[in-house]
Predict the 3D structure of the following.
Amino acid sequence: MSLRRKPGLPGCRLGLGAVCLIAMSVPASELRAQDGPGQHEPEEEPPAPLEGLATRAAQAPMVDGVLDDAAWQAVPIMTDFIQREPFDGQPASERTEVRLVYDDAAIYVGVWAWDGDADAIIPGDRIRDTEVSESDAILLAFDTYHDYQNAFVFGTTPAGIEYDGQVANEGQGGGFFLGGGFNTQRRMQSGAGGGFNKNWDGSWNVATSRDGEGWYAEFRIPFNTLRYGNDPIWGFNVSRQIRRRNEESFWSAVPREFNLYRLNYAGHLTGLELPFHRLGSVTPYLLGSAARDYAGGQTAFDRSYEFGGEAKLQITQGITLDATYNTDFAQVEVDDQQVNLTRFSLLFPEKRPFFLENAGFFAVGGGGADLFFSRRIGIANGRQVPIMGGLRVSGRAAGFNVGLLQIATDRIEGVQDPNAYSVARVARELPNRSRIGAAFINRDGSAAGDYNRTYAVDGQLGLGEAWTLTAWGAQTKTPGLARADQAFDATFGLNTRKWRGNLQYQYFGENFNPEVGFLRRSGHNYYQVFLLHNIHPGGIFRELRPHVSYFTFRSDKTGVQRGFEESARLHIDQHWEFQDGMEAHTGVNWVREGLYEPFTIFGTDVTVPVGTYDGWEGQIRFWTNESAKLSFNGGANAGSFLSGSRRSANGTVTVRSGSSFSTSLRLDYNDVKLEQGDFVTTLAGVNFGYFFTPRIYLQSLVQYSTQLDTFSANVRFGWLNTAGTGLFIVYNDIQGIQDLHGPQGRSLILKFSRQVNVFGG
């Protein structure tokens, strides 16, 4: 059998320079050019902030969604919303009014979302934390430290759901990963990624109502749910989405290239008299389960009964101490399976509640490397490792973001010995969207000399509104690995209304080993360039986005030719976005994979020998209006793959009936033909959800994977209380398909948890 060695694309090595020349050739006047009515390039600096006034209420309003309480009368109104989409800078098409009052315990926000065609309002799914971009929605952002980079977000839809999260670093960071799998927007737990932690669950409540003139929302947000300093002026903004028009508008206008998390465009909220009530709460749980590990040789079901829980204490208004004992995550959704035809590990998002609280305070790294990745704690070789307990201190003190974490895990024979994990993180927000920080991450095993440590510094420099420079550097210490244990990343980014782009350089030493982080590969230099142009032509198209990018991994490993190209891709694409949200992406890729050692593709007996393989492939992605009752999201690739070719197709069909029911069918298919052998992988899944109320739901996820050789089912019933607590019934079943014939594992779990305020509630 002959090894195919294709010549490199003649222009590919010039890709980096070519795109740089394109970027440099664009005149400054073009970067500021206008197009479309009411659409304009933002000012170099945000305009003077709007001011909203919070008023003390003599009597708190009743949170029932009917805004007829005396507290809402004679209160200043925040209105005159400005569009971000589709016509940035133009008045909103419908009137929105916001009023804000408070008492000693909580902030109350009333929203009047008037609508001239109330029958066309899209309520969305009726489940907590569903993705609000596919429905009408109201979102509130509170920059409680007024540092323009961190905030709490609370939102709802006409269905009356609770949607909340934490913003860190203007919503940036953590790369572009949003979680693998499918239909994540309609699932309660889609994982945390980037600079917005959607899975943070606070204690608050909201109610909504509708009539022939629109819909209305009434929020109650306890001061104890928030963290803040001594500054009585907060950053504050409100966004409203009218989904049928694809319209998003803001009380304090935000340019089209940014979003709600760009907090330096928020207004000022004044008039608050900030109380301090020290909060102490405990959240115990009781759990009963019956489980059998067929694959591990168990001959009968193992029945167990457990208890544990968490406790929370506000040390100061900005600093919180959390403790956990016998930590359990039985209620957490199983991961969506993914197809992996590469040499590298897949990244799955963190969904476990304890690790999601203030997750942004611990984030460090980026650009494909998370130096602290909490899924390394309590999970090993795909199995859950018992977490005996731990402490976390996080929040804001003396102008610094502070995070301290200590966790101890138990032993699983043959899987992992006991370990202690420590994380210390400190960061300082600076003017002009800038910051600087440092981190220390440590794992100590029970055996002598079994440890791993990571030291890191990072920073960001904002240059005006459009340019951002981010960088980080790190070093690891692991017994037996010396030298070449450093890593560095620098990214220079551009973001204007008409242009987006970046230049990035990374270095990872071959002995860089962050064991409590996530790193796909090491021992290389990485170069990337990306440039995208936004065009807003009007008419049938809402936006066109032609773009080009190029990246290359150049080896820096012992025994491999220095500069050997391990991977590269030139990507040329055009995004076509229609007015109703339908979108199509049409592109071509030139791809190269250099193998310095043989590669056996996971789940197959096909081994590709050493060599360099490159060629072209075409790709298309397409999705319809995902707020419709019937929607589709999918794509296809065809072309060169290693020593042969690949044809792949994937798609998800979603059916929704009102706010109570949605189901999705997913298929991911790969047909690969190589000189070393042919194979096919199939991944299929069905997701079902019935939502009795915003807090009571039944969900299931059934998955079939030929690559994993398994068929699995997960069924979850949840009756939620506050802050993600409540009653959960979970059933799991895993069956083998071929080589893993027969049952592999089965479990039934009943869990109840309840948050109890000990004082300060």
Observations:
- Residues 34-270 form a domain with the Immunoglobulin-like fold (CATH 2.60.40.1190).
- The radius of gyration is 26 Å.
